[in-house]
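Lecture 7, part B: from sequences to assemblies.

Below are the input chains for today's worked example.
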Amino acid sequence: MEWKIEIRNKKGVFDPLGNGIKKDIQDLGIKGVKKVNVAQVFIISGDIAEPDAKRIAEELLADPITEEYLLEAGHRAKGRIVEIAYNPGVMDPVEESTRKAIRDMGIYGVKSLRTERKYFIEGKITEGDFKNICEKLLYNKVIQHIARTPGHKDTRTQVNGYKFKLISVNVLGADDKKLAKISKDGQLFLNLKEMQEIKKYFKKLGRNPTDCELETIAQTWSEHCGHKTFRGIIEYKEEGKTKIIDNLLKNTIMKVTNELKKPWCVSVFKDNAGIIRFDEDDNICFKVETHNHPSALEPYGGSGTGIGGVIRDILGVGLAAKPIMNTDIFCFGLPDTEHKKVPKGMLHPKRVMKGVVSGVRDYGNRMGIPTANGAVLFDERYIGNPLVYCGTVGIMPKDKSFKSTKSGDLIVVAGGRTGRDGIHGATFSSGELTHESETVSSGAVQIGNPITEKKLTDTILKARDKNLYTAITDCGAGGFSSAVGEMGQYLGAEVDLEKAPLKYQGLSYTEIWISEAQERMVLSVSRENLKELMDIFKKEDVEAVVIGCFTSNNRLKLRYNGNVVCDLDMEFLHDGIPRFERKAVWSKPIYKECENKGKENFTRDLLKILSSWNVCSKEWVIRQYDHEVQGQSVLKPLVGIKNDGPGDASIIRPKFNSKRGIIISNGINPRFGLIDPYWMAASCIDEALRQVIAVGGSLKKTAILDNFCWGNTDKPDRLGSLVRASFGCYEIAKAYGVPFISGKDSLNNEYSVHGESISIPGTLLISAMSVMDDVTKAVTMDLKEKGNLLYIIGDTKDEMGGSHYNLINNCVGNNAPTVDAEAGLKIFNRMSEAAGLGLLRACHDLSEGGIAVALAEMAFSGGFGADAELGNIPGDVKKDSVILFSESNTRFIAEVRKADKKAFEGLMKGVPIGLIGGVSGKKSLRIYGAGGKKIIDAGIDELKKAWQKPLRW
Amino acid sequence: MKKPRIIVLRTAGTNCDNETASAFKMAGGEPELVHINELARDEKFLKNYQILAIPGGFTYGDDIASGKILANEIKYKLNEDLKNFINSGKLIIGICNGFQVLVKAGILPGLNSGGMEATLSFNDSGSFIDKWVYLKKDTKTPGHQDTRELCVWTKGLKETIYLPIAHGEGKFIPRDKEVLAQLRKNAQIVFKYADNPNGSIDDIAGVCDTTGRILGMMPHPERHALGTQHPRWTREGLKEFGDGLAIFKNGVDYVKEKL
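Predicted structure of the full complex, as structure tokens:
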């Protein structure tokens, strides 16, 4: 018997969800919708009699105060109705929990349960409008469909018994053309050279590979898992000079760390995340990942599984760390893009943004990890390929920082079940997005279940503290294939694939092996600890099974019901990949210089920059995230008299009984990269570090992470700019003395429109993690008291290239901000001392929009006005537009008490500083320029309004 | 004297358990994190504790509705034990998701009229919100009774306290006008929002039962136990403790004196 139970609001009850959709419909430009209501539909089948169905509906599913239920599909009198259901194979997170609740009620006959959303749209709209609303707002065909007939068949739970049949792929008999076809048809994303290498290997063995073997190799060799561009050989040309780079990663990023040899670096570039020392008992770790392509196709699921994935990275570092903070940095197309200008097959940037934000929200909040740092950037080139960076910080006892798989250990998989979701994620993320991506690669997109991951986290940390396993890793891209392959790399492993718990029947052995179903971890466990470990899982309802063991024969052997389906040499699998040889070239582009009109007043320019997408308030995003769960926040992302000013960095104190804290910040500025990726990299590092300094931190124990998101690096110009950015990373990080501890690259961020390939701007994210000895010395950016002095610290230079002033004037310019790390280091260290001595009442780093924006933000965040004379600031600049808006690096504005003037100036001797004015009792910002003339005069409320308006959604 | 024992109840999706336990510890209690399975499987017993705390989180993903599945589970698995616990004069506090659980299990507001007497539904904004709020007293009680004085947990609190909310479903809706009138009459409304963030009827942020021993509230007192948790401590000066700690102290002190 199948019951379809519809839960909907009682008449007269306000429906916030429906109301939100109504607003979104108006955003689409469709008028005439009067009301939208949303109903939840539960379809329950099994041995359930009517009284029980009624009980379920009445006691469990419907809220007696706000909702009513219908046991049969009901009709509302007016309007259009549409029901949205998940596609076969897509996980419905509500299924498991609702079935549990029904069992708790003593009702045991449920065989399957699935949910649908039902929308009632009232008002005068055309059939075309209705179709538009459905496609643009209510469902995404990648994961959902319109349930046309009531009681349609549930294909997800249909038992299509899988019949074993070993498939081998005829590689030996294939010529180059056929090899290429095998790679393309199988979505392996292997190039010809790699296919030839595979053919050579199997020729030696005298047999063809099985499909499973080929998939395993493709996954292990994918750009996503192998970083083959960074580790390859590059012939780099710049200004006529050629240089051969053998392993870019080793020669730049990793070189910084190797040369700096910081004693507090515990584990770098080896594990899932970089680990540094926190205090005498604990270490902390940090990892940032990207989940760009899945988020382009299904923003909600893509970003949710992005954050879910990086949390598992932290759970899989060493012997597991406890996740204590998340960071999120997004890059989107412009939210006000006209609908007709969105390329075919792509979602509108506003929908992408709303989906991504809610995906991170729903996953991160449910995991109970504060999302306390981030950034959101906009550029029209991200329209077909948004960037979604998700990071997680973890803490672990010192002695739990390293893993070592032992031969003879059992392979245990714990957490979620394996399904057909996420097949080909690793290889898919290594290719380019086209308008066909949504159909071809839709298997790569998934919906996560954070509660499964939360249970897994709770139990793993318990098991860790009892020393019940020897190694652990996450099932990320590549699923079991990558997890088991990595853990057994130096030992060998045997797996019986039929033992993996499945979400539904019908998966082939290869699908089981490469599925990227979420929320799974793989552990290596000695036989004597198995029972105790399983008991911990069982106690909290976490499913875990043994699927194989680690051996000592250096082979990866997979069986399905006793049939061998894969037998590969570990060495070939991990080291057999032919190295890439690529050409790279970089030449400095020349942009038109910006026109220079003799302007006298810049108030309107300031307002315009404050209202620009990149600079404006991100409160709409931040408040949707729980940034305080775990109770450890010391500086929240929003600060100031009304808790709504833009803080420079977040601080948490991970132990309630200690004042030691962690500062997390980030630097990202793709606009500088348009001019010169070297200075972009330098600026990103400088920005991340100056945010650490601005909140009262120091460089003493600061480590950084790199995340490169680039276009297709097969193309020499893309690779050239990547190389140049890496050089910038090396030189500036080295000069500042901050080591890289982890990083990741996501290449091939391109999409094609009418056959033309469009690349995202090469985008480097630098994330910083810094240990702060005493969090009570923290400083925020909001002005604090009338009468205090305002100083500028650092030289202002004529560096308008890529600035926001140029952006609002529709040009780029040619002189991107540079970094003088020798001078910079001195500034950073002195400012850090000043904070430690309590001399800074407020401090803000100067970045997008320069001095003018920083002063405005400090003023309206603090609720005070300010007067500033900028005629004689340090640095050789005389033009008002440059003084106000240049985005030169390594600069701060600080608020200092009059009583501390001498102490502050004394401390800063030898560092370029300028006393520019003071905090005023009037609620206005007045700035005087080079000639002593007033060049900005605006009320702080007006400035704040301009800054808050764009994202007041 | 032995420290009061607090059971901080956990299950899948609980996530404010550690900080809640920490607040109880700071208040002088002895908290223990216990999974509901341990109670249901008779490995641990509710009767061995004097305070039951149901912390914040997203139990079972808040699937169906926030707190609903845990409320259902408690109703079916712990019914008798919980009744005995309440009847023996012990204390319960539900924070955020814990409040949602207590309301949906019919334990709060506890007018004993049968079934759910109130609910906590989606915020009017339709979205999750993390924000600090000022909480004041109910002034609409007959004879201007001080609501805070009748509740064990809120006795002697400052007139206005400052705590964060972090929820998507915090809109308090009483079943009908009679329930609301009863709540006022019995002086059960202990916390009202000074500036309503979610559309709660009558600005209700927290209520206690008729005995004053069971408290449920959407704002998070455990997130303002320490001075550094205040969003403006860098402006207004750093205090050692936050406003929320007094609530935990009240509970612990009551047990020390009375139980």
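Note for the exam: Residues 2-146 of chain A form a domain with the Mth169; Chain: A , fold (CATH 3.30.1280.10). Keep this in mind when comparing with the next example.
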